[in-house]
Amino acid sequence: MRNLRILIGGAMTLIVIVTALVALVWTPYGPTAIDILHRLAAPSAAHPFGTDAFGRDTLSMIMAGAENSIIVALAAVGLGAVLGIPAGLLAAARGGWTEELLMRGADLTFAFPALLTAVMITALRGPGAYTVMIAIGVFTAPVLARVTRTAAGVIWVQDYARAARALGRGRGAVTRVHILPNILSVLTVQITIQLSLAILAEAGLSFVGLGAQPPAPSWGRMLNDAQTYIYTAPFLTLFPGLAIALAVLGLNMLGDGLRDAMDLRRRRRA
Amino acid sequence: MGIRQCSIILHDAATNMKAFRQVEQVGGRKNRDRTSRLLASGGRGGLLHCNTRGEERLLKTNMMRRPTILFAAAMVGLLPALPALAAPPDSLTLGIALEPPGLDPTAGAAGAIRDVTYDNIFQGLTKIDAEGQVVPSLAKAWTVAPDGLTYTFDLQSGVTFSDGTPFDCSIVQFSYGRAMAADSINAQKQLFAPIAKVDCPSPLKAVITLKQPISTFLYDMAWGDAVMVAPKTAATNKTQPVGTGPFMLSRWVPGDRIELVRNPHYWGNAPKLAAVTFRVIADPAAATAALLSGALDAYPDFPAPETVVKFQHDPRFTVDIGTTEGKVILALNDARKPFSDIRFRQALAYAIDRNAIVQAAYSGYGRVIGSHYTPSDPNFVDLANAYPYDPAKAKQLLQEAGVKPGMTFTITMPPPSYAQRSGQLVAAYLSQVGINVKLESVEWAQWLSKVFSQSNFDATVIAHVESRDLDIYARPHYYFNYDSPTYKALYAQYIAATDPAAQAALVEKLQRQLSADEPNIFLFALPKIGIWNAKLKGMWSNDPMPADDVTEVYWGP
Amino acid sequence: MGAVTHYLLRRCATLVAALFFASIIIFIVLQILPGDPALVILGPDAQADTLKALRHQLGLDLPVWLRYLHWIGGVLTGHLGRSTAYDSSIANLILQRIAVTVPLAIFAMLLASLLAIPVGAWAAARRGAVDGSIMAVTQIGIAVPDFWLALLLILIFAVHVTWFPAGGFPGWWHGTGAALKALVLPVVALAVPQAAILARVTRGAVLDVGLRDYLRTARAKGLREGAILWRHAMPNALIPVTTLMGLQFSFLLAGTIIIENVFTLPGLGSLLFQAIGQRDLILVQDLVLLFAGLVILINFLVDVLNAVIDPRLAQNLGQGLQ
């Protein structure tokens, strides 16, 4: 059952990744190639997902959009990890005022939902994929910091970590040797979940026009365009949404499956 | 729809005053529910009054705060058996895409301010009618001295503002003086620059002396920026507009709607509508839904060209495709290389299929133009085919201009959908002749500072909505930096010309000169897609000026 | 008890510090925002002296620090300032918009709870196939973006059958019926993904508390299973559930703003976008501070609540974010 979930989730994630990779070298039509004669064409053999207002092939755009979603999600969560994990480790290792400062800083950052940050960055330097990456990354950092801090805190009070400290090893060394390896699995799960959240957030921000700019395809923006044509070409609302749901569902199932598998292992060990 | 407004006269005025206004403004089927509710709750032996005129009187009473009578209700709810006798409704709900930032046209440039207030709330000495002609408004007649320097206006008598303040020549002095003052925040202050002084030989006569003759003066004074405002209320017009027009503000719900009712002090013939509501619905799908469901009676500038077909096949609606003065152009920064090279600009013109752009960006509504002039003007010259779509020719010109394939420039796009769509399409066409276009979306605020004020851009898509604005190509350091001595000389001749025939000939020459130089790529004239209830009469087909003038609108049978 | 008091005091101090830092960040960002408010109001034809006059009128020619003090001083004394675009009191503007946003958020949260808590509890109590299929459905519910769901709802209930409006909000004074009708689709779109998350958490919480002790002891006392679940297991399970609801607030806020955008509802979200577009700086500052302040405050309340209920919980709070 659990392995099945990992399997299905993994397969869905793989589909999205493979699609993005294929889109790098091949799409049925150019994702930005316009064809005014065939605008707003309903799904057919030539265009399985139909065409948009400029006659662009929706399937090709969705394939190319996968790339955008993955890159933004990876970069955003990467940024969040680079900022958040060391902060969490440091807070757990030092405690006291350092911890208080870092964790309240995390609270403060967390108080700015990605949307708010994105709105402000957009106002400063225009919308775009980078804007979204930074906004989501900034929002991810405090989450990872808290998770890291909590997980590391649990390890720090274990006997082996205490013993290592008692033997005179530095906080950094203990973190490296004992803490980090032991919280890696927790972090992996959290990062998987954060990736799915990042894909959702990217779609939402692109939907309100803050994300990747045209002509770069983006699932969220495709949905925004689709709303304009909801009377004339309702099929346009369908496929980008399905793509988002597939990517998010896959990552969530993978994350949940991994978490349960780990719990099981831990319980067996105990 | 098709509901006769009735009035129920009650004695307990204070509590029902509000109810009256509510019913008054909703109109339509919602009235039914309210009526029954009000009857159930407060039907204290009132008197039933079933004609629109009665209701009109009630409204006036209401506005004058005489503590008597009360509220209007829907006939349908009361006497459902008599729909055939129903008089047409006398309220109107209009859709607008942008909410006006304030309602004072003398303190802001937004077109939406004029949409709501022009002639409805505020009036000037002259006005522009539906055909774009200058006609009398608060000035019933005028004479111009032979030297073109002295304008004598005969003012309408018996005019008061909606708060009762009388209008006379002192108001003209005040309004223009305020617009010209050092601390004026009038967005079109230059319109008043030619005025030397305003004299008042008698209360109903205004004599305006100009510093130099200006042929467009009467037209200029018809702008929304030149309306009459009273000294007492000028400072608060932004939120509580007090004008001389047939309507006045009754309620403004920011972000949603602006409700106007008849001005009881109006000097002219009372408008046929008792209440007008402007609803802000920017989203194309929501606008379509609102019209289809009857939540809106009209959308004078409909934002969803794609769904127009749906309305054309529906007998409940009138679809009126009119013209605006909007010219959508791909403005180029002629001061930058390679835009300074005419061959490069012409290559761009050949590379873009403008018919396809009109098709994709506006579902085929709108007309391809070849110069900075709109087809609605009698002196329009059709230059749409000066640069037909010809990618091969474009490539050849690019080569002559020494532009290598892979050359990159940025198109800065402001938020409106015409700009976003046209920008994307232009980028796609240019990529076919080997030019990479980077698209950059900016907010309106950034567009104004970066593109317009600082001229810091390569290219941008923008609609110029002022009519007959050939002067911008003669201005030094205007944002697109067109600098042609030939054009400037022609323009000077045009301004100095007094003979209409000579003026017309020069306007034609100016258009041809622009087409030949192609300082910007002229794309298409913005259409005005008007959709309204088929029973509605008197809506403007065209947009000679940003305005949704509903003073003559009424419901037919 | 002393430890908890100490914790609360420290937490209060950090609350104030966080709000202060938030105000500084917001103010700085808005000061470096490109675009001139006066130019936006007066448009391209405005002349230099006119722009200068307007800037003076708007107080934009004052030094930066003075403007910050004016703003924050006003906020602290309950004066949110005036909107330059609407030329009216910001407090009034925000109140009018809150009348849309807050009911939207509250109804969504209510609907989500009404759907999720019984379903989650049921799944936990039944286990087996019921549990499996409920969990599969919630898994999908979490993956569906709320704005896509909104579009699908519009497509079905506003375009195909015209039961509900596709957007817009008639206002509360035109009868509660019409207003509620306009909120139905947005509320459903917001609530479904929230409900999916909540159902999973409820299930987990009930499993944690319920199946451990309550069932055994209560059953020993001869109580029926349903009674056990509702009277004994649920109250305890609700602690982590409400905690999560508090932490979900930030997502709910962002979701509300986007959903308002889909349905063109005149709420706080559309006010924020509009204010930024018009460079209505004080209004933007107030709104962002309000949003950030709400998230900070709710995190604070959740922390305090949990410290009071169960001092051990405070440690683990941060984990439940997803």
From TrEMBL, chain A:
Sequence ranges assigned to domain ABC transmembrane type-1 in this UniProt record: 66-255
Per the record's keyword annotation, is Membrane included, yes or no? yes
Q: Where in the cell is it found?
A: Cell membrane
Its domain of life? Bacteria
Give a Gene Ontology cellular component term annotated to this protein.
plasma membrane
* Presence of the UniProt keyword Membrane in the record: yes
Q: Which InterPro entries match?
A: BP-dependent_transpt_permease, MetI-like, MetI-like_sf
Cited Gene3D superfamilies:
MetI-like
- Give the way it sits in the membrane: Multi-pass membrane protein
Biological process per Gene Ontology, one example term = transmembrane transport
Entry similarity comment: Belongs to the binding-protein-dependent transport system permease family.
Q: What is this protein called?
A: ABC transporter permease
